[in-house]
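S1.2 Input.
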Amino acid sequence: LYVDIAKQFADQYSYIEGSSFDLRLDSVSIREAANQPTFIGRQTRRGPVWRKILPAMSTPEGSAWCLRPGTYLIDTMEIIHMPTGIVDEVGAPIHGQLDQRRTLFEHDATVSFAFFPAGFTGRVTCHLHVHNDDGIKIVRGARVITIGFHTYVGTQVDPYCGLRVGELGMDIAQVNVAH
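S1.3 Output.
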């Protein structure tokens, strides 16, 4: 799997490192005022309403958002297709784990995200928390998070079967660049 991903993105990504690579910022959304709490049930959920915002400025590196302190919902350009049935050399299933890039916390911003189990397919969506009192400017396409590929050790796992199964369609074991 690692070799296939490295070959697929060799021209586009010069920043593949070992069994991980960086994901790029595609869109930013802000939360709409709902005047009611969200709901998390066993089988149903009613989450907040998020509205995409357009980049507010142009820089030599491209369009950028000027983000004040607060929480934003961000999407990456990449769509993840976590495979099922693909194992490492000792037979352990592969899963993906996100981590923020050092650059974000150096600029007083953090991200929060969920674990990507085998069988998950979808766009990577995270919260971006801007703590910097002066805000940050961030360019569309900036590398904001890293996904690393790891294996489960000593356990049998079932593929992802949560409420978001098939949200973007189950597909082949690969990572697609949306733009």
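S1.4 Remarks. The radius of gyration is 17 Å.
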